[in-house]
Design brief:
MetI-like fold
């Protein structure tokens, strides 16, 4: 198992390099002058050119990219922000906890909503419960997140005044964003749980358990549900990874200083070091999450654990 984890971590190195190269290339082609951004529109042309030389912006593309990767590998230096002239991780680590809290709480809400209803819908197939849950899942998947966020904000914050409308001052500020993400993503979790459970309860070993007189609750929980978890775990891991940097709309509507809003703002200002460091960090987090998902397979399926052991 340890060797497998090490192999996966080593395999992430070329992935990180590829992501860094792609983002560096895209940001290089976007319009804008970082030196002019730093000095302001009133700066003289000579001052702008001098700063461009000092920052190495006049060097060839591959020279700048190689220097950036070299600084990361040797010094763990991801550069300084063009806006603040401070190390980029000073601001990233201030905003990352907000994004992690939103993503974690949203994923928990999605699982608490989608998994139980998905299991119940599969067990009661073609019943009223099944029809209602399938329609609910389709509606939630089709609802735009920004519309749902604005409706929740209008009703529970502006009209009723139960929760704050913006900021991250207390845990109450996270209620509406987490419900928004939980409902939208809960539809996906519900659908995949229902489909996986339907496939599992039609298996031979489930029918054999019924024939032996095993109680229905035991068959569903111990035999069917555990084997149906693998696709659910995969979907949940992918959703959680996407929520880390993909909840930009939710963070914007609720005025939450997360990592997604930072990336969007820095792209507009062409703050290349901050954008690069943020996306590399999110990509690394996503890779670690998918590694954890693979390891969770071993706890759900003994056959996979035996494969890892070999």
């Amino acid at each position: 198992m340890i060797i497998y984890i090490l192999k996966r971590l080593i395999a992430m190195i070329p992935i990180m390099l590829g992501i860094a190269f792609i983002i560096f290339t895209i940001m290089d082609f976007t319009p804008g002058d970082p030196a002019l951004l730093i000095l302001g529109q009133s700066a003289t042309r000579e001052a702008v050119e001098q700063l461009r030389v000092e920052m190495g912006l006049k060097d060839p593309f591959f020279v700048r990219f190689s220097r950036y990767i070299y600084n990361i590998v040797t010094k763990l230096d991801f550069g300084k922000s063009y806006r603040t002239r401070k190390p980029v991780y000073d601001e990233i680590f201030k905003r990352l906890p907000v994004s992690i809290k939103i993503a974690t709480c949203g994923m928990v809400c999605a699982c608490l909503f989608g998994i139980p209803i998905g299991v119940l819908s599969a067990v009661k197939q073609y019943s009223t419960v099944d029809n209602v849950s399938r329609i609910t899942a389709m509606i939630l998947v089709a609802i735009p997140p920004f519309w749902l966020a604005m409706m929740l904000l209008l009703i529970f914050s502006l009209k009723l005044g139960w929760v704050p409308s913006s900021g991250v001052a207390s845990w109450r500020n996270y209620i509406l964003p987490c419900i928004t993400l939980g409902l939208v993503r809960g539809g996906d979790v519900l659908r995949i749980t229902r489909a996986s459970m339907l496939e599992t309860i039609r298996s031979d070993y489930v029918r054999s358990a019924h024939a032996k007189g095993v109680p229905e609750s035991v068959v569903i929980v111990q035999h069917a549900f555990r084997n149906a978890l693998l696709p659910v775990i995969t979907t949940s891991g992918w959703i959680f990874g996407s929520l880390l940097g993909g909840a930009i709309v939710t963070e914007t509507i609720y005025s939450m200083p997360g990592l997604g809003t930072l990336i969007v703002m820095c792209i507009k200002l062409k703050d290349v070091p901050t954008v690069l460091a943020s996306i590399i960090l999110l990509a690394f987090c996503f890779g670690v999450i998918m590694l954890i998902v693979d390891l969770l397979y071993a706890f759900c399926d003994p056959r996979i654990k035996a494969k890892y052991a070999r």
